Amino acid sequence: MPRRNTRNEERRDKMELPIHRKKTCRFCADKQLRIDYKDAKALKPFITERDRIAPSRITGLCAYHQRRVTEAIKRARIVGIVPFSAIQRQTI
Ligand SMILES: [Zn+2]
Question: Which residue ranges make up each domain of the chain?
Fold first, then answer.
């Protein structure tokens, strides 16, 4: 007589993987990271391809650091190392 699988053996544990991975603010995670308006390369991940300031739901920053980054980008624009808009970049 063939051995029947018990109910527990048949049942597979359903892996419940989270769809939304909680983003953590990279500046809160790493205290040594500094927001510097003179460092255009460091500000790059917070600027979209159309040269807009990326929202916090994209950057994953907390409100405090999003504000600091926004301020740094605006300062960098005035200094001239970050463009104001994609249109501006085309005309120059
Ligand atoms: Zn933060």
Answer: 22-91
Q: What kind of architecture, by CATH, is found in domain 22-91?
A: Irregular (4.10)
Number of H helices, E strands in the chain: 6, 0
Ligand 1: distance of its center to the CA of 19 in Å? 23
Torsion sign (Cα): 81, 82, 88, 92: positive
User: Ligand 1 center to residue 20 CA distance, Å?
Assistant: 19
Residue 24 Cα to ligand 1 midpoint, Å, equals: 8
User: What is the CA(61)–ligand 1 centre distance, in A?
Assistant: 6
What global pTM score does this model have? Answer: 0.72
pLDDT in tens, 46-88: 999 999 999 999 999 999 999 999 999 999 999 999 999 888 6
Question: Between 4 and 67, where is the model more confident?
Answer: 67
